[in-house]
Amino acid sequence: MTPPRDAVIAKVHEWVAVADEDFRVARHTLSLSSNCPYRMVAYHAQQCAEKYFKAFLVWRDIDFPYTHNLARLRELCATLAEWPRELRDADELSPFAITTRYPGESPVVTEADARLSVSVAERVRQVVRQALENEGLKL
């Protein structure tokens, strides 16, 4: 049974709001003048991209697995639209979902890594927002 459209719209807005919080945290943290925790910038950038892909899947009423794998989520979106193909670089953010949160799990995240992750997250954010708006969702 398909959920009522108002409920879907509300749920998508929730996903987008939380994704935007992750994006703001990543961008703000990256602006710190000293002792910037680049690993946390990369983590929040990955979370932003993940939540935007999931927001689109919620919009289309597609169940998705509990995963941080952006390639998998992007592939699910690609079964519904063309735009995910232009976001292949987002797949590279997936490791930041786990390895950045625990000591000893990954190499050091550099400033360049952090800046790139924010740039990729910003592109995902822009593309998915435009896709949602093109399908009639007012954000």
Q: Secondary-structure map with pairings?
A:
Blueprint (H helix, E strand, L loop, with lengths): L4 H26 L7 H22 L10 H9 L32 H24 L5
Helix pairs in contact: 1-2, 1-4, 2-3, 2-4
Instruction: Count the domains.
Output: 1
CATH class: Mainly Alpha
Number of helices: 4
CATH architecture: Up-down Bundle
Structural class: mainly alpha
Poorly predicted parts? none
Helix proportion range = 55-70%
How would the global form be characterised? globular
Provide an overview of this structure.
With 139 residues, the protein is mainly α. The chain has a single domain (5-134), classed as Four Helix Bundle (Hemerythrin (Met), subunit A) (Up-down Bundle), CATH 1.20.120.330. Helices cover 58% and strands 0% of the residues. It contains four helices and no strands. The two termini are 25 Å apart. The mean pLDDT is 93.
Sum up the structure in keywords.
Four Helix Bundle (Hemerythrin (Met), subunit A)
